[in-house]
Amino acid sequence: MNPKRRKRIFRAVTILTVVAVLGCAGWIMACRLGLSPDYDFGAGAYYYADIPGFESVVRDDAYRTEVPLWVHIVLFLGWGWLMYRLWVWIDSRKP
Amino acid sequence: MKTNLSNLWKKEDWLAVWIGFAVIAIACIAVLTGAFDFAAAKFSTWHLWENVAEKKSLLAQLNGAFWVKLLRTFLVLGVLFTLGVKLQGGKIKEYIPAFLVLFVLSVLVRLISAEFTLNRYLEWAFWALIVGLLISNTVGVPQWLKPAIRTEFYIKTGLVIMGFSVLFSNIAKFGLYGLGIAWIVTPIVILFMWWFGTKVLKIGNKPLVITLAAATSVCGTSAAIATGAAAGAKKNDLGIAISISIIFTILMMVFEPMIIKAVGMNQLMGGALIGGTVDSTGAVVLAGNALGAEAEQAAVLVKSIQNILIGFIAFFVALFFATRVDKTEGKKVGAGEIWNRFPKFIIGFFVASLVASFLIQPLAGSDSVKAINGVLDQYKNWCFVLAFTSIGLDTNFREIAKQMQGGKVLWLYIVGQVFNIALTFFAVWLLLSGVLFDVPVLDLYK
User: Fold this and answer.
1) Residue B297 and residue A62: Cβ atoms within 8 Å?
2) Which of A24, A39, A90 sits opposite B285 (nearest CB)?
3) pLDDT (tens digit per residue) in B227-242
4) Selection from B434, B432, B423, B444 nearest residue B175 by Cα
5) Which of B54, B164, B230, B288 allows an S-S link to B296, with CB 3.0 to 4.6 Å?
6) Which residues of B243-269 are buried (b: 16+ CB within 10 A; e: fewer)?
7) Is this complex scored with an ipTM above 0.90?
8) Does residue B135 sit at the A interface (CB-CB below 8 Å)?
9) What is the pLDDT of residue B187?
10) How many C-beta atoms lie closer than 10 Å to residue B235's C-beta?
11) What is the pTM (predicted TM-score) of this model?
């Protein structure tokens, strides 16, 4: 397929996708789908602190673990550092 | 290593840190001593066209207490930002009237975004962009308003304030299961999107790629704001990443629980999948709720861990951009140069988080921290609304179309999100299905 034609198809598919996504989002909002009468918030509450009464939504002791906090922190930092090194390696590769 | 001490009170990054710390300190004193009220203004939900049993009017909430809070918000932010602008060498005679108008526009944004349906799905970031864009692309932005358009300054300050709400103790909330689902998957998705965006789609705008990757894999708007600021993303980049994330979150909030139900996945796995993939925390709670109580709790636990990641991801992104993206070809970047380039507000973010996690929480208790965060959250939101309205005012539609790079940016998000869902599902299956480990039991008694 020649590049011009491929570009045209890509653009058409992108425009159709954008229209479908926006239409779908508009329809969800108009029909007020996905909401719960129990809660006075929706997808618009991006961050947990934006949710009114978040402490009543999440239980601090819903799960208890025997693994100490420091083990979590070590694993957290270790994995983070490993992934950073991998990122540097990926970035140094030629496309 | 050459360090200029005056940077501490002259540079935007440091000033954002000091302003953030000042707001946090005043909020702590106000809540812990109970000596005075420091709450910022907030519009409660109101109805415009909805056919509901109890219609809440906008006018009913505009009482004396509301106006006092609004005046307080204006004075606190106005005084602190004016001082910051003055120390950076700006002209306060030009800044004050411009800030006043920007604040009025921000009040309008928060008023619109408190309307029931708009608030449920889109809230302030989206409406701030829309209001700003409408003005800049119709009547235009007058010259006298421009001194107040300081997007990065407001964002950095908001992020430092937000740091106080990031509590390290949340890391163990769902034990190693939560860490496995939230933390193993997230960086892999970021790296995949980086590779796909920069190497396959060949998107040259690297800050946009990383901002979108963080929004997709971590937690939408908040992660995009932090990462975008750390990578030095352009204003349009942030607007695009957040708009895409917000619109797709609406779809995922409704369709993901439907699909999970249809395939017969159990509540624990379904909830964890939602917590790891749906971007905004509000949408996570509701999508989990649609599956049941256990799913809701699992979703929120996984999301709580993802919320901690924001600062760390921003830190690594800042380090990566300081050492690799912004460097001259063939030149090694020394420690002094890394320090000069490193965005200092991230240090403020971490300090605020450490103080809340290891000082205030152990000394004053979780309830006090929650009460302080209740106050700080509104100041954070006001800072971000000022920032996003500024972005809208500083953007035109032609620039946005150009930034989309013929649709590549949209496909980066879609492919990245599909990869995110597939990988999170794999992690959830591995950890929670019982094939390798014991299935955890959640205490759902409230």
Assistant:
1) yes
2) A39
3) 998 898 888 888 899 9
4) B432
5) B288
6) bbbbbbbbbbbbebbeebeeeebbbbb
7) yes
8) no
9) 95
10) 23
11) 0.91
